[in-house]
Amino acid sequence: MTQALTGAPYTLLYTDDVSRNAAKLERFFGFAPVEYTPGFALFFFGEGRLGLWKLDAVEPRVKVRPGACEFALSLDGGPAAVDAAAARAFDAQMTILQEPTEMDFGYTFVAALDDGNRIRMFARSQASA
Fold it and tell me: 3 in a domain, yes or no?
């Protein structure tokens, strides 16, 4: 018998500076984390969660530096919503790694936090929707 997994999905990004990166994300997202300590910050997105966890507090210890993964969020509103998100990322002093562009899955951009963690926003193309 197979039992379905339930619960909200979490994405955890390891960071050297929770405070600085949480402040950038708060400015970018337009809302504060629902939980905040110097070692952890948590943002809610519908049924999903994005956490920033202080790198040297993660157990078991991390053997690689941040930046090898990304948090991606599908946006309603098409390319205009992606362009607006890219402008907010720039205003929040995030590093733009990929300007808004059309890719096979949709219109997207990628920004990075100070430690290299990536945030991707995209509007799915009609072909992939």
Answer: no
Structural domain contains residue 2: no
In a domain, 29, yes or no: yes
For residue 111, tell me if it sits in a domain: yes
Number of compact structural domains in the chain: 1
3-25 pLDDT, tens digit each: 777 777 889 999 999 999 999 99
| Average pLDDT by stretches of 10, the chain with 129 residues | 74 93 96 96 91 93 79 94 97 96 96 92 78
User: pTM of the predicted model, to two decimals?
Assistant: 0.83
Q: Which residues contact 71 (CB under 8 A, 6 or more apart)?
A: 11, 13, 50, 117, 118, 119, 120
